[in-house]
Amino acid sequence: MNPRENLLSLMRRTGYESAPVDMSLCPSLEADYRAATGVTEAISEHFLFPVRTVADRTIPERDQTAARGMFRDTLHPATFFDMWGIGHEPGSAKAMHMTRMHHPMEHMDSLAQMQAYSLPDFAQADASHQKAAADALHERGLAAGGGMACTIWETAWYMRGMETLMGDMMDDDPKAEWLLDEITKRSEIRAASFAEAGVDCLFLGDDIGMQHSIMMSRPFYNTWLQPRLKRVIQAARAVKPDILIFYHSCGFVTPFIPDLLDAGIDVLNPVQPECMDFAELHAQYGDVLSFHGTLGTQTTMPFGTPEEVREVVRRNLAIAGPKGGLWVAPTHLLEPEVPLANVLAYVEACRDFVP
To answer: In this structure, are 265 and 150 located in the same domain?
Structure first.
């Protein structure tokens, strides 16, 4: 099998030949790794990741001056505004890559104010590059992916502020329905566009879990968010029925798994071991759901020994068994405190594993 065939078979639980590697290094950790090894190529090339993402539909960059003018307060001069107009303010040197978020709709009092706001127009965005990019990856034996993290809920609360948006939803305020629907429509367009390009995997996600509990009740989730996620997945599957849907949420999301399956996901990420037990989840859902992650970035990766890292990798792959269903990987970005020896131990454990 080439890397694409191996990954797709692994995620479809139809057997696999090798355990692929996947991880993200924070900027300082990547710099440390490059300094220690002399590696200059992209990390994805260096570690032979089996999937690469195809760029989204091209949206014009947000006018930074106009975006700054949406805020009442004077913002830090280095604050950058993304395509939604969400502000990202850098912190001190100690904050490293972390930023403070500013919400452009937080103080809007009326639906008319929100409707007058300029949201990204994905319907008119340029998608001409996408199919060629997916085809080029396939020619190399690699899987093509479409990245759509912050699919609905996170983009919405980044725009409105979490407390404000939660209040709108609890009050059945039309502002919440309008905002969530507008973001969902745009996500449907993006999902269908990736599917038309022929990507193999669509990476969706919104954090709906916290460290030890779900972020909202299941009835609340199934009223406001699950049907909209389902629409996005259906938009992709209407074009490409066999597209693999990955869904990311940090934290404890076990109670939501039946709802996510009903929405149409194929793979759950990251299965955070600090609050979710992979063996239990696999025993209950392993015949209908695959998993991506399971290697703790709050525990094992920063504070374990290299042998403990290898043991977790071996144990979890053994739980999944020879049919596959687990793409073992760190559960989130690897932060500065992760020893390089643990990064290499993870890679080596995957390379050495025999299904």
So the answer is: yes
